Amino acid sequence: MIVGQKVVCVDDKFPLGIEKFYTALPKKDVVYVIREVKIGVNMAGEPGEVAVYLVGLVNPKSSKAPFPERGFNAERFRPLEEIQEKNRARRGEGEAKEELADAISTFSE
């Protein structure tokens, strides 16, 4: 994931109490633009998680040095292009099935 990339939230299930740390959370199936990507920490405070920061969602800074803004795990998002390709493939499969059904019904008449 890179700055400026459009992504879709695929997981908006956050642990209870998360609102103590965030003022803005992403919503599933909504398109966002990445404004920053960093190595962050997980909910247990362990480093190594890729964190994304989104245009339009600004959150409070962490209370732990170096006091970064709280981001979101990159695994909660998929590139918009990937989602669009999957949707096109699904539509294509549906259209192919309809064509096959039409051909079968025409043949059986």
Features:
single chain; 109 residues; alpha+beta; 26% strand
Protein topology:
Blueprint: E1 6-9, E2 31-41, E3 47-54, E4 72-73, E5 77-79, H1 80-108
Antiparallel strand pairs: 1-2, 1-5, 2-3, 3-4
User: Largest sheet, described in full?
Assistant: 5 strands, antiparallel
What is the rounded Rg? Answer: 20 Å
The overall strand count is 5
Summed over residues and divided by their number, the pLDDT gives a mean of: 84
How would you characterize the overall build of this protein?
The chain is of the alpha+beta class and 109 residues long. The protein has a domain at 6-79. The chain is built from 1 helix and 5 strands, in the order βββββα. It has one helix spanning 80-108, and strands at residues 6-9, 31-41, 47-54, 72-73, 77-79.
Brief summary:
By secondary structure, the chain is of the alpha+beta class. It has one helix at 80-108; strands at 6-9, 31-41, 47-54, 72-73, 77-79.
